[in-house]
Queue: 2 jobs
Job 1
Amino acid sequence: MSNSDHKHKIDLEQIAETVEEQVAYGLEIQGPVRPTRTLWRDTLRRLRKNKLAVVGLIWISLVVVMAVTADLWVTPLLGDPIALDTTKVAEQRLKPPSWEHPFGTDNLGRDVAARVVYGAQVSLRVGILAVAISVFLGLFFGAIAGFYGGLSDTLVMRLADVFFAFPYILFAIAMIAILGPSETNVFIAIGILGWPSIARVFRSSILSVKENEYVDAARALGASDVRILSRHILPNAAAPIIVYATMSIGGAILSEAALSFLGMGVQLPQPSWGNMLADARSMMVVAPWLMIWPGFAILTTVLAFVLMGDGLRDALDVKMKD
Amino acid sequence: MLKYVARRILQMIPVFFGVTIVLFILRAPGVLPGDPIEMLTGDRVISETTYNQLVSKHGLDQPLTTQYVTYMKNLARGDLGQSYKKNRSVTEIFVEKYPYTARLALAAILIEVVIGIGVGIISAVKRYSFWDVAGTLSTSILVSLPVFWLGMLMQILFGVYFKKWGLPYLPISGMGNPPDLAHLILPAITLASVSTAYVARIMRSQMIDVSQQDYIRTAEAKGLSGGAVVRRHSLKNALIPVVTFIGIDLGAMLAGAILTETVFNWPGIGYEIYLAIIARDWPIVTGGVVIVVIAYMFINLLVDISYAFLDPRIRYGGEAA
């Protein structure tokens, strides 16, 4: 046996941690072996090997930590993100980036870095709450459509068609026009607009698992519909929903930014990345630094959620249509 | 085929009513902030009688169901009501604006087709090469990029800084008078950006999918050169889903690119709707949305029908899940 062959063998033994893998690699089963891991621990292990997903996760964690701890350090270190120092507005306004104000100051003399950090709070809140609403509604309608079928299926899917018939951003604008522009209404609107996609994903997952014997067995044992759905079907249909929801958080952050940019979202003086860009747009020529960081923050945060979603999709081995 | 088309059109009816009801609710008094009559008159002080005359003139004293019927009747005649602020009919405004939106959309689709399909083919043919990795990474970034930010970055670079540095620069606002190509470049690139990335991704994965099919192996086995296999066999089959995506995307773009048009002050329907939101001129907003949704549904219908025409499996496979 040559040296390189031997090395190869050792590698395989290190990689093959479960019985199945040892069999698959043609190794002798080593005993005592580690038990087969659960789906979630396998997923985590595969996710760790995906560099881009890890980068995404680290970036998301960083943004979350900065946003959550913002009240502790932003105002003493950078300045108040909202309140104005009326005596100093004239001398402090529209200063380019410096040591004191790393991202410069805005039209009213406030620190842009401080506002970007507080904008992260809005983006994360809207992203997470909107997707929570979408998932809740999507699971509910998806369950009705997929589990009961028939007329309820037709009705729910036609309703979903109405939602898909609207160009997304215009539908959001129309809803905000009804509800009035505010942060709460933005995540409600984005959340409501997101349910049809989740419902479709859940519906097709239900259709693929509900014919399984364990569902029949549960029914024969007298389990209620709710119990069958929540204990037997949901765990087996969860993977695509988790992947979809992760990516949707990025999408919701992007939508919030777009709505706030158009003046239909978070209202000034509260900072959001979108309304900061709208503000920067009018100052583009005199103060180009105003538009760099809010946009960069949107791009990197959304990208981080997309990369995480991609990684989860590969790790959970979910096949997605697009 | 006829049966498929008929069923597809029938499916549109409940969707259409759903959409118009949502939009009608928008128009109903008390739903939107502010009194529509006050918006009509602005700051002028009017007497009670004039106020009541205006209310009945606009039919706001009728019950909601009657108002809806009137609204639908007018809609069928192509009448979308009067703008509160502009003293023009909404239909007239959008008839004027629509060609501008179409112009921008077609330019964007051209970029999307040429660059998106090109990048997709290169990525697939030279899989795992430097160009493939660069292409895939840049499409991920483009998908996460807020379009309005991309537009602003290009404005500042190609408009403001190029001018400052004495380089040939591009106009960053409006569409020129008379309209010219230079004004079209930046908005078209901005509008095309995200879709180009999607086209490249779909094209790449389709090409890779197709290249694993038996008929490709046969073509290679009979001695066809690599280029001929791509041109004659993989490309044709890989294109079907791409064409579908582009069709749907054209629908979305003709529906008005509200963000791109706003960033570039492009006088299309998207920008008009945006200005109307700011001015709270609701007849324009709801009328614009009606036009947009009808255009969007109609183009989706055309895409579905042509897709069924291209791929018999859809026509006979019953309802696509």
Job 2
Amino acid sequence: MRAFTTLTGVAAPLPKANVDTDQIIPARFLKSISRSGFGKNLFANFRFKEDGSENPDFVLNQEPYRKAEVLIAFENFGCGSSREHAPWALLDFGIRCVIAPDFADIFHNNCFKNGVLPVRLPKDVCAQLMEDAKLGANARITVDLEREVVVRPNGEEIPFKIDPLRRHLMLNGLDDIGQTMQHAPAIDSFEAKQKAAQPWLYA
Amino acid sequence: MSAQKPRTLFDKIWDAHVVETLPDGTALLYIDLHLTHEVTTPQAFDGLRAAGRGIRRPEATLGVIDHNIATDSSRYTGIVDPESALQVATLEKNAAEFGMPLIPLLDERQGIVHVIGPELGRSLPGMTIVCGDSHTSTHGAMGALAFGIGTSEVEHVLATQTLLQKPAKNMRISVDGNLAFGCSGKDIVLAIIGRIGTAGGTGHVIEYAGDAIRALDMAGRMTVCNMTIEGGARAGMVAPDQTTYDYIARTPNGPKGAALARAMEWWKTLPTDAGAHFDTELRLNAHEIAPQVTWGTNPEAVLPITGIVPNPADVTDEAKRAQTQRMVDYMGLTPGQRLTDLKVDVVFIGSCTNSRIEDIRAAAAIAKGRRVADGVRAMVVPGSGLVKKAAEAEGLDRILKEAGFEWREAGCSMCLGMNPDKLTPGQRSASTSNRNFEGRQGPGGRTHLLSPAMAAAAALAGHLADVRDYQPKEAL
């Protein structure tokens, strides 16, 4: 996983609540057996018309948001299907941070496994950042995971909190399977005890 | 054991599976059963391969093919879509290479992962169960802790049989009293989501309790737990009871004899202790729940079938008003319109929410001796080959076919728009599935979620209809 330390870039405003993972990447595009290439179908039902041409009204089809690295949305972002293709599609498009008042649990987990930073900020702050983002290319915002601050275009710093373990893994781009493997002896002894107490699980 | 703080069902299963607690409170949680399917696993197996890792406990892992496949006879001659064929072949190849048990596509046990787990007796009380699929919450109906995970976590479980998890908060939803005529588990869960909202359960595991939940059969409980994720909760659970034990006794792979007796000793200790703490509690009266149908593009946009399409102008909150307007526009509705006036093009009875034998019986009871309305395509997709076989043994397929329904092969089908069963733009469906998101059943498709009996009634009427007006004409 690519480490996430700090990011300064264009933020795209998506003033919607309940952006579900079927919107982020519709199921018909989940047939790839690779982790890459999903960016071209990110938000496909919004970005493209039925004939396949671009929908000019959708934010990611507008300059400068075609190069957005941050997405700002409203409540319950990433609800619905557990598909990790959603953060893969965001990442493949170039979006490495999503800011919203809250996130659905599974999507939130999946982001951390892929170096996509989900930042929770109060709704009024998200609304303010969306106004900033509407200023376009001159409105670059900074997301600093080291210091846990979002820096608005006017220099104002807004603090956020990330779970310390996840922050550590993300700052260092660490794979948590490797970490868990260090607990193998504990897993072995758990299994031995469980097998004795609940043999039907090992039948 | 010494006197302990009263614990919930969730607390007890959680505590029994903590391998280690890390300094920051994250638990390394042991996973008893890992179900896998073709869509969310290829990248996980690639990860294992790249790191030179294997599956820690293949016998605690089970693969099945369900999302991608056609539900007509074409599966017997090979998968037509090359991308789908590759994804299915990849699961088969990975299963062989890593020694993972896999139910073959043409095996009679093949079916939707959340139907086959309980049906085969693999999903049991007290277990931790995961799958790269949000509707894994279904298995909580067995009295298990079951939740969906992403592909990175699939890889983590394959390699270590554990997950890094923070404990969830406890929520209890009690549904008291008796369910009214014409209502089912689907109506209960839709009414609950209407009440708590799509994010109402975020951060929680929900335990369902109360007389109306106890009175549900296992299929009904699975429907309720299945849609728990639609209320934002990580998992839904129902404490095991005699209904659960009787169900397990009928499964082919559940524990038998002495093993079952020993398992039951533990299972009987699982129900929530008196006085256990719930962070959130909610009570509903079952008799106040009418048959439900969604009108908008998330499952919280739900009303009794007697309702009318909301008027965005009546919504005071600006953001909510805009969202309501968007839903009304997308769904092609007119504010004030009666829901029962909405004509349907397609009726879909199936999905991990409602494709069990009990669901098919409910649909067939309404359909028997009647005809699907002209111009309506109505399909019934059993949740597994075993469900299909059981339904055929009861003659339900004949009843449904005579009424004009299609009787199909098991799979996820029209729930999610990734196999040949899809809506075309603008088509309106009455669907027993779980998500009415924009484009979920196909780009531009318009989905109304409802129970199997309500779906059957809509098929007969040609429009959304109140199942209470369609009492069975004759016994099944």
